From TrEMBL:
Protein name, UniProt field: Glutamine amidotransferase type-2 domain-containing protein
PANTHER family attached to this UniProt entry: ASPARAGINE SYNTHETASE DOMAIN-CONTAINING PROTEIN 1
Record keyword DNA repair present: no
GO terms of biological process kind: asparagine biosynthetic process
Domain Glutamine amidotransferase type-2: 2-261
A GO molecular-function annotation: asparagine synthase (glutamine-hydrolyzing) activity
Source organism superkingdom: Eukaryota
Keyword Transmembrane applies: no
Coiled coil regions in record: none
InterPro entries in alphabetical order: Asn_synthase, Asn_synthetase_domain, GATase_2_dom, Ntn_hydrolases_N, Rossmann-like_a/b/a_fold
Length: 627
């Protein structure tokens, strides 16, 4: 997982097309900067995401005889960058400045790379993502290098929709719309003097934005908020006051352009931000998330009979299994850098979703590698809630007894995690509820991978035996996470409630809402907490082809909430588990990470006195700045 950032200063930015309801549609005319953090604080936060290399590149832009000139400053930014008043004047013109920062966690390619990547035409890229398909690349190439090469061939079209004047070339939004896989990136296109930025249509990589305002007139993008507010001000993200928006926002998923022109306003260079549509029907469909077959009416069942006659005889489950397996296979691509014995780990609860991921990973990964299964518990060493994780690993061992499976038991005590809690508060920013914090801490500790394993391989009997507890730190750089399974297959308790209230249509609406806000509520937060350990989260249930296939399946085949919990919820995934010979897992009911790991209970005791008091106060959704 990489960390990327861009700081833009010295411009008057027209925001009217991206923030339509703001009263003043352009950035403030006076320069200002927050004193809460420095460029070095941003670098420090990014460095944790990308421990292999850190680089920056600064350029300045001058208006000159009706055009924009660029002058480049190699390497580090000049000291004057943090003092906007020092903007120097060239040929009587004003200057705008751009600072690109990139920290790299290298998982692909044969040679080490350093970001920002700069090509021979002067284009600049910082990139955090994985290309799994959609565009051409060879298995040994680094996808960042492939991207910089392909982006340099894009045409100069800036119009909202590609107008066909590019003679066979793609526009930048068109090209980015073709990528399958998670990404966030920032790109300087030299020929058009345009900054392109954005994140994938599903939001599987974090990108935060600070829109210019009176407090800080710069436009800033960063994978993660720097630690500033925790040091300077304990009300994180609320330096503006409780009712004002926080400093950083999740960037809504899209491609944006910021075009610089030579026009001046208030003695500053003017530039315009635009949001572009996804130019790929597949992505449009995934965002719309429309399902044709929602209700099992007699009329529907006839339609289904025509369309799904063969699938109904079992092909359907096989198709889902194949799509998931292909998704896991794509997500186990890595190069030889720092990979160790267990390159890919699974965030593991022993529940249905993580069992499916572990079993599929076993099928996709060379048998010589070990697989770490990471589990966090806040319930002390006794950890009765470890039971399903232990039962799960035993079932996996039965299924694949030649593989070395390491159940990494990570024991945590909330009361001893004071500084860690503050750190995670800063990582989840702009999320700010106790529920976010609890999930964030559980994910952050799991990704840290620092725990115990109990298993020892018994050479004589050629099997694993449980003998001693040994300290173990997982070094897997790739972490498979089950996000998206509950949203798409009706795994949450409230799905059942919705179904009881308003039947199939209501259930479908609720699931659609879940999928359309998952970037805002979950994915950015989860990405930031996991990446802070120098690890990369990959989400096989959120593969473009998996989502598309699941949407084509009638809702009543996905879940049937007339049936009891542990049967009807995520019905389709239970069928997949059976096909993988995971009999026990196929029958497990859902337990959310914050309850399963008991962090919610511990947090309620700590912050509200007791679990009961906390429930009465709706603790999960309470904001923690009040403390
Ligand atoms: C650890 O395992 C238990 C079940 O044994 C589960 O409830 C809990 O959510 C798991 N923790 C994580 C972080 O997956």
């Amino acid at each position: 997982m990489c960390g990327i950032a861009l700081i833009i200063s010295g411009f008057r930015i027209d925001l009217s097309s991206v923030i339509p309801d703001s009263t003043d549609c352009s950035s403030p005319s006076h320069e200002s900067e927050t004193i809460l953090f420095s460029v070095d604080d941003i670098k420090a936060a990014l460095r944790k995401r990308g421990p292999d290399s850190l680089g920056s590149k600064s350029i300045s832009l001058h208006a000159h005889e009706g055009g924009i000139l660029r002058s480049s400053m190699e390497g580090e930014e000049p000291a004057s960058l943090s003092h906007p008043k020092d903007n120097f004047v060239l040929n009587d013109s004003l200057v705008g400045k751009l600072l690109f920062i990139g920290a790299t966690l290298q998982l692909r390619g044969v040679f080490p790379i350093t970001q920002p990547l700069v090509d021979k035409s002067g284009n600049i890229l910082v990139y955090n993502g994985e290309v799994f398909g959609g565009i051409e690349f060879s298995k040994s190439s680094n996808d960042a290098e492939v991207l910089v090469e392909s982006l340099s061939k894009c045409c100069n079209c800036l119009s909202q929709e590609h107008d066909g004047t590019c003679s066979g070339k793609y526009s930048v939004p068109e090209f980015l719309s073709k990528i399958k896989g998670p990404w966030a990136l920032i790109y300087w296109q030299e020929s058009t003097k345009t900054i392109w930025f954005g994140r994938d249509a599903l939001g599987r990589r974090s990108l935060l934005i600070h829109w210019p305002n009176i407090k800080d007139s710069r436009l800033m993008l960063s994978s993660v908020a720097p630690l500033y507010a925790v040091n300077e001000n304990s009300d994180i993200g609320y330096e503006n006051g409780l009712n004002e928006p926080s400093f950083w926002e999740e960037l809504p998923c899209a491609v944006y352009s910021l075009s610089t022109g030579a026009q001046k306003i208030d003695e500053k260079l003017m530039c315009v931000v635009k949001r572009h549509n996804w130019l790929n029907p597949l992505l449009q469909e995934l965002i719309q998330w429309d399902r044709t077959l929602v209700e099992p009416t007699p009329e529907n069942l006839i339609k289904v009979h025509k369309m799904y006659a063969s699938e109904l005889q079992g092909h359907l489950h096989r198709k889902v299994l194949a799509a998931l397996k292909e998704s896991v296979r794509r997500r186990t691509i890595f190069s030889k850098f720092h990979m160790g014995n267990s390159p890919v780990a699974v965030l593991f609860s022993g529940g249905l979703d993580s069992m499916i991921l572990a079993a599929l990973l076993n099928e996709c990964l060379d048998p010589k590698y070990e697989i770490d299964l990471l589990n966090v518990s806040f319930d002390g060493k006794l950890a009765p809630d470890r039971i399903s994780a232990r039962a799960g690993v035993n079932e996996l061992r039965k299924m694949a007894n030649l593989r070395r499976w390491n159940l990494v038991e990570i024991d945590a005590e909330l009361s001893k995690l004071t500084s860690e809690t503050k750190h995670v508060m800063s990582l989840i920013n702009p999320s700010n509820t106790y529920m976010d914090l609890n999930i964030g801490i559980a994910l952050w500790l799991a990704a840290g991978g620092d725990g115990w394993v109990r298993e020892e391989f018994d050479m004589n009997n050629n099997k694993y035996s449980e003998c001693q507890h040994v300290k173990y730190k997982s070094v897997s750089r790739i972490l498979l996470v089950g996000s998206g399974a509950d949203e798409q297959c009706a795994g949450y308790g409230r799905h059942r409630t919705k179904y009881k209230q308003s039947s199939w249509i209501g259930l479908n609406e609720e699931m659609k809402l879940d999928m359309q806000r998952i970037w805002k509520r979950n994915l950015g937060r989860d990405d930031r907490c996991i990446a802070d350990n120098g690890k990369e989260a990959r989400f096989p249930f959120l593969d473009e082809d998996v989502i598309r296939l699941l949407l084509d399946i009638p809702l009543w085949e996905i879940a049937d909430l007339r049936q009891p919990s542990g049967v009807g919820d995520k019905k389709i995934l239970r069928e997949v588990a059976k096909m993988l010979h995971l009999q026990e897992a196929a029958g497990l009911p859902k337990r959310a990470i914050q309850f399963g790991s008991r962090i919610a209970r511990e947090s309620n005791r700590k912050n509200f006195g007791s679990n009961r008091a906390a429930n009465q106060a709706s603790a999960g959704s309470a904001l923690f700045h009040g403390q």
